[in-house]
Amino acid sequence: MARARVIATGETNVGMKRTHNEDNYTCLDEDHLYVVADGMGGHASGEVASQMAIDTLREFFKATTADPEATWPYKMDKSRGYEENRLITSIKLANLRIYEAAQRDPKLRGMGTTAVGILVVDDGVLIAHVGDSRVYRVRGGKMEQLTEDHSLLNDYIKMKRLSEEEIANFPHKNVIVRALGMKETVKVDTQLDKPQPGDIYVLCSDGLCGPASDQEIEEIVLAEQKDMKAAASKLIERANSNGGPDNITVVLAKVIGIG
Length: 259
Hints:
Blueprint: E1 4-13, E2 23-28, E3 33-40, H1 45-66, H2 82-104, E4 112-113, E5 115-121, E6 124-130, E7 134-139, E8 142-145, H3 152-159, H4 164-168, E9 189-193, E10 200-204, H5 206-209, H6 214-223, H7 228-241, E11 248-258
Antiparallel strand pairs: 1-11, 2-3, 3-4, 3-5, 5-6, 6-9, 7-8, 7-10, 10-11
Helix pairs in contact: 1-2, 6-7
């Protein structure tokens, strides 16, 4: 399968309740890599963690594009392909850098970040994530969530069936059970999606998919599918009009052809 051609855009916003933005994102068109990171830790440290994650991924991809023989900080997993190893390694390296920075500086202790990214490769779209930032795919007029939240709420939902009311009133919605910077090592979930022309991948922090329902996100993306920039802006507007309790970040990547 030939590589998908995509056009992408991203936008981030502080929201209505926060004083500073701890989210970051990047659209690296030349490396076919698109990432959203939602930092945590309060004060300035969440912002530091998410920026470190984005910078590390960017730097690792630039280095390995320029020199494919460059020495990697982790051994390759032989059960996975080169590009999947490359994506996982970049996230693991970001995790280690954030963890070590937090150990060195008491002011940064406890900082962390989610990371969700897509890498467009020859045989599809690789998705990698840690935390509760999400990837959705809009195809044929319908939106589907492709990632599974690494959150306490999702763990409870999987363990026992919670009613809609119990889910809505769950007291620890913001508790995530896996993030970059929490420990020295991290498990990165990956999957390969087979894209079709017209598909739109929606990467977002929970500042979007918390306040805006899946149906609202789907409706806006479908209504604005010819203009990704307008779609991103309208998604952020919707999250803010629904209260904007958190920082909001979205990256939209539309498949305009294959090969």
